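Next comes the chain:
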Amino acid sequence: MPEFHYIARDGVGEKITGTLSAAGRREAASALAARAVFPLEIRDSAPPVLHQKIRRIPAQLQAVTFGQLADLLKSGVPLLRALEVVEKQTSHAGLRHVLGEIHHAVEQGATLADALARFPKVFGEIAVSMVRAGGEGGFLEEALNRIADFTEAQDDLKKRTLGAVIYPLVLAVVGTGIVTVLLVFFVPMFEPFFGKLRERGELPAPTEWLLGFSEILRWYGLFLLAAAAGGGYFLRQWLMSERGRLWRDTLKLRLPLMGPIFQQLAVARFCRILGTLLRNGVPILRALEIARGATGNRILGDAIAQATENVTAGAALAEPLAASGHFPPAVVEMIAVAEQANNLETVLVDLADSLEKRTWRKMDLAVRLLEPVLLLLMAGVVLLIALALMIPILKMGQTIG
């Protein structure tokens, strides 16, 4: 008989935790009620995790797989047969292996959610929780369809974000490469012509600085590149630490142009994940825990953790979110109204749609402004190099004249 972990409150309101054996979550809830305790959260004990090295499975392919499973189950095909059909249809070797393992686990008596949980690097907590809720609530097909839609929406968001920043990044890289080539290969060709001006002390300061910087790049460029690579490696390691993540997430929210965009994207992600989980029957405490980790920002995650403690104590969700100062007032107000109207899951998903549309308009404007700024910066640097080289040449012409 499976083991369940529970968080509950006893008759005097004290929080208690423990495990019990039951045939299902409903039976576990009944057993806790018989003990005169009120369950806040009931979840399966952690299933065994398979650690085979699996190639990354694209999110789009995962969405198609979930959609196919939902269609087969709606048509009356048994779960084992549906898994077998989807496994044979897929051309992705990694996904075929995963589906085979899932089919074997379900055949041995595991639930579909437990089988998915054995592959945490493939299926996230969101998908596992929604499948578990759908399986226990009798709406597995609907849950699988919603997972497919949610996965597609998240993948589209990632692709749009990458597409928005890729062109400015290419401009920055190309501009840096052009300037480096000019300084390393083009500028040194003029140095012999400026020898007499340098001997007489008549070489303009900008030209002197340009030649000096070019010489540093020629002689010490590889050392500077190695130092930059080493610094980047250690910076990346530090950013993965607790203090580094906190500093990075704080900086992202305080950036003058992109800070509000990062904040609204994180809030939209939180609203969409929390609303989707609640809509699929996941308990609110578990849903908040998953949504907290999915925001991608430690500052917002801490605010959600504080809100979770308030919800555990029986308070509303909107109050601690408003007190944190990291959630827009309009979002907090709509969450408060939704809590009173008991339609929080619907409002959260609608909020996510609205926030994403507004944020994409802001990001599009920011990228449009960034592109000419980078072009002007590149043109300005090239112009400074040209002027630094032309001034002494003009001076030499005047002297000869």
